[in-house]
Structure formats: C-alpha cells, structure tokens
Known about the structure:
About 65% of the residues lie in helices and about 0% in strands. It is mainly alpha-helical. The chain starts with a helix and ends in a 17-residue tail after the last helix.
Amino acid sequence: SDSDLNHVQQRRRFPTWATQKLQLMIQRKLRGSGEPNARPPGIVAQIARLPWLAHVAGRITGMGFRPEYPDARFRAHPEK
C-alpha cells in the first residue's frame, strides 16, 4: 500500500543519504591527490591500524548504516 511504501521511504532516507555521503567523501579524498602512488588519507590509515574499526567501516560501506532484513513472510525459505 502507499502507506507501507511511505513508511519504508522515510525509514531508509537517512541511512541511504549517509552511506552515499560517506562513499562520496572517500572517493573525493582518494582522487584529490592526483598522484597514482599517493599515500591514503589519514583517516584510512587510522582505520587500517585498528582491526575492529576496519571491520565496522567495511560493514558500513558494504551494508549501509541500516541493513535491512526481510520479514519472514517474504523469505524464500522461512525459518521454522
């Protein structure tokens, strides 16, 4: 229904914006130097030094700020 769609759009608006903003910031930092062998930006080096932070950053980059899990009714093989 339109109400359900509106609810999903409202719930996903900020996480989608934040994920895209983060990706854009990283992209600009990596392209900004213009040198092919330039060192990574400071924040990337900091993240690389801390394994748990690298894991969190990878999850956010790959799955977004709010991963979605489909309702059991819509899964191909609902858990019993």
